[in-house]
Amino acid sequence: MKRIHLGSALLALVLAAFVAIQPAWARLSPDDPDYKELERFAGEQAARLHPEMLANGRRPASPMAIPDIFGPGAVLNVGNLYMKITNNGFDCNPFTNLSSDPSGQWPGASSVEYFNFIAMSVGAVNPLASDPTAVRRVSYLTEWRPATLDPEDRIYRGYDGIVNGSRFINDDSDIDPQTGDARYDEDFLDGRDNDGDGRIDEDFAAIGQQMYSCVMRDDTQQAINAAAAERHVPLGMECRKLAWAYSIPGFTDFNVIQYDFYNRSGHVLDSVVVGLRVDMDCGPVEKSNYFSDDFDIPSYPQGNFWIQTPTTDKRLQDRGTHRDVNDVERDSALCPRFPVRVSGWSVADDEGDDAKTPGMPHLLLIDHTVDPTGENGPRQVGWRAFRSFVGSTPYNQGGNPTIDQQRYEFMTSVENIDPLTGFINQPNGDQKGDYQAWASVGPWLKVPDGGKISVTIAAGVRPGVYRDAVGYLNAYNREAVAASGPNIPFKQEMKIVSDATSLLQAYPTLDNAIAAQVAYEGAYEKKDWPLLPDDHGRETAVKAPPGQFQTLQGCEDHDPAARLVGDRQYEWFDFDCSYCTGAYSTSEGGYFHRTWLAEAPPPSPNSNMAINYNYSDNPTRQFIAAGDQQVTIAWDNLSENTPDPKSGQFDFRGYRIWKVSNWQRPVGSGGPAEDDWTLLSELRWFNHAPNNKRLCTPLEVSQGRCAVGDTVCPQVFVPATGQLVDLCLQKGDLVNIQTGEIIRPAPDVLCTGYPDCLTDTADRLGQVGVRETRIRYPIGRYKYVDRQVKNGFVYFYSVTAFDSTGQGDGKVELASRRAAVETEGVVPQSSADTTNGAKTKVWVVPNPYRGVRTISDRPSAWDLTPNAGDPTGTHIDFFGLPRADWTIKIFTVSGDMVQIISSKDGVNESIRGTVTGDDGVSRPGYNRQQDNPNDGQARWNLISRNGQDVVSGVYLFTVQVGSEVKQRGKFIIIR
Fold it and tell me: Domains in the chain, ordered, with CATH?
């Protein structure tokens, strides 16, 4: 198989270390243009590596803006589905042989993959094209690139509750000068001033417990140069992408991606369609060709389902809140239940790989832009075309379209879509193989310059086996019955399931799909908003183009009279014949539809483990994690200062500190798995009083413990010691009830922005309208020291936060998710020689090094499974190095130079890129051999300066400070 030449002997070693793991694009046929395109794309990125680092025989991280294709990128990891997000035209990680980031692993960092890639495409007709070959074109895969090569055009991270990121809130108090209305979420999170007010990212919409955002275009020079099978003709489109995940129960098995496509061409685009190519692969990466024994299930999950309307949802429109209507009894609710449509497909492993592949991946269509009139786009959400195929199938036999003409032809067809139900009707495949699929939505007939089309999908995994899932369609048809009534969209003929209890129990994928769809549906609520319905069921606001008038007719049953629409104000219409949309009350007026309504735990705090903090060149790093036989975990108070996005109240309750030891980096793992974590400490926040002292009791007075009128700390039983202890707390302390441990806020860590401290304000918990202001503090507000560690071994830590929601029996605690990736590992280091090299005594561990084949049998228990960034997986360490700058030279016994190690060399540069600090300066984001002045330990990965793995033998070394050799020594390698 053809390999991509990356320009150094060491890179060849990287690939050789993964000979058992096929290159990710090898899952595609070598004849597939996408195979060649991914191969060419990898070569393009390799060309951007640092030449000087290649010359030194070290494999560096790519300097491109994140995601680093060859190293750490943006990975959704707060839920069960770990999935990589990129700012190119695909998501997931089709380069797993070059990057340790998970592609689509579940549950957590399990080394079991379910997604290879999700590639997006947009096709359109350009009515102004003079070249006939440029009339119908499609922008696809790597033809989408960051808008510019500026450092601002990268991926940004957010979360529900982040400052300036409250959805449907006017964070910056902007007013539209033309209408006088408040402006909401007008500044997309992309490092740019999108609304022209001179500020950046001051009012955007953040969602989920982890969110990534980026901007891509199809008309950059890099996109135009991305031609593979044919010349790329851009449409002039911009894509603003949001990808997010949830950590709350019931929402952890799916990730959401929202694409907002903007026409920036300067003219109208006709017949715009959006397509997706999805390659789901099921199996453990340790198994060769694990993707070759899958089956597709195109009809699973899909269907229509009734959902009971909660009493808190204003769309219920209970009796007494609505006027008389001609098709609903006056004493009945207008929307006692609402229909939910599930559209998706799945792929399953043939036999589960001996129970190593327990899950089933699926792709769901959640939402897209609709036109209820049907004149300019789809009336309701649904697929336009679909095809599933084994990878090497030719296009004319139902396989992959390879050029724009074929892609556009497919995306505008109605292939494998039932004309009556709108659901996928392609039969299941009759042979196992590497199944892939194309699907499309649209078309939108006229998209003006500046016009927007939005498409939202979800990628999910739930437990399931193929032999059970193939029976879903028959089970659904047995449960679904013909429906009629005022809330059937567009009065269409529909079969719908009234009670899906048995289906949900039997089919976990369906349960996941309905949970995602209901989460999107959210609820209707009372809220001030510029545009709200003016009568029952009127879901669509219409205004005529400038200088024009229109006469429109809504649903005859609900909106019987045709009305004149002008260009000055909006008129509301009921086009879909449903009272469950366009909710309205005769006493309260129109209601606001809040989508993606879910509870939210506090975000995890920022800690000193993060790669944007824990790097040697960070001038603001005050709290170094790695110490001598200890690790210091430090974090800020972000969790305390973030109000619940749903209630608007401060509901933080405490922190949990988690740890991973003895991690050996299983094949394909991007970080610790869910079962690897151990709880170190649960710390509850004491914040409801100045202190916890109480008056001395008569019994305590009689015992001589205190005097009448004195205040004392309460005595509490500590389970860890089995004793009663005095527990003295002050406001702001963190206490572990099980151990009696107290962590107090660091008094020497000044507030953020000192002396003008930054603050956050929200309602107090349980006291609506009672405002409370809290001061922000940086990393170091709290510190926890773990001394149960060994120098030279890798450890992971995660600080999570939990809150308190509800009261009485309904009280629950929601916690953020523990997570870490390989780049966040911490390695304790021995202390430096404080004599500054005058009496240097350096020794090598282990000595001798015995590199037996099985990692678990090696005396050097810190060895890891090799991967792309660490092709040997092992190291020997030099201990007792001086505080001064030093150089280690390694020789064979015959005097040949083997390697030179400097105190300024990077340790993890192969998996870390540059970091832009708060001062706007970009610096190397890796840890150096001498990570800090007290670091007296250095590692060598047993690779020579020529990029070769060293052999058995006796080796000599010198330690040099300046021009003076301070010590000579030797060590032995046995392999």
Answer: 626-692+729-819 (no CATH), 843-974 (2.60.40)
